[in-house]
Design goal:
Length: 168
């Protein structure tokens, strides 16, 4: 009998967007279990702490028993080996993502040929959504409704309000 297929969906998720959510939901249908693996120390000054990002993802996927949320450090393929995961899931939004993603997938294959990278496309409305743009728009007072889960929208508003209060 085949063991369950465990997939890892790695990233910085600063913050989680609806594009990420879409990919996770697709992955959860395709694989027995999918682990949202949040990289520790990805940026020197992330907007959300790792603990906040873990909380957000856990809350958004609270009703999905085959979605887990975890953190990792070091090489992704070593983390995959420790978890006994056979698949790394990455989202591809546009051709512009392709070169970086191909380099990572081939480097990871070189490091660990046992792990296969699977690319998935998000639903069309999310093909232009990135965490970086979401942060920029929210910080400048623009609306990110429908681009991020409601919980993230609220937390972005709290961060902006907190910063304004600090500056005042
Ligand atoms: O959300 P991101 O920033 O696109 O995710 C990038 C991530 C976390 C997948 C990538 O930086 C990564 O895997 N980092 C772990 C360190 C590692 O394994 N580096 C070699 C990758 S080829």
């Amino acid at each position: 009998m085949n063991a369950d297929t465990l997939a890892i969906y790695p990233g910085s998720f600063d913050p989680l967007t609806n594009g990420h959510v879409d990919i996770i939901q697709r992955g959860a249908k395709l694989f027995d279990r999918i682990v949202v693996a949040i990289l520790l120390n990805v940026e020197k000054s992330p907007l959300f702490t790792v603990a906040e990002r873990v909380d957000i993802a856990r809350e958004v996927f609270a009703e999905n028993p085959n979605v887990e949320v975890d953190t990792f450090d070091g090489l992704l393929v070593e983390y995959a080996r420790r978890k006994r995961a056979g698949v790394i899931v990455r989202g591809l939004r546009a051709i512009s993502d392709f070169e970086y993603e191909m380099q990572m997938a081939l480097m990871n294959r070189n490091l660990n040929p046992e792990v296969e990278t699977v690319f998935m496309m998000p639903a069309e409305p999310y093909t232009y959504v990135s965490s970086r743009l979401v942060k920029e728009v929210a910080a400048l007072g623009g609306s990110v409704t429908n681009l991020v889960p409601r919980l993230v929208e609220d937390r972005l508003r709290q961060k902006k309000h907190g910063r304004q209060t600090l500056r005042a």
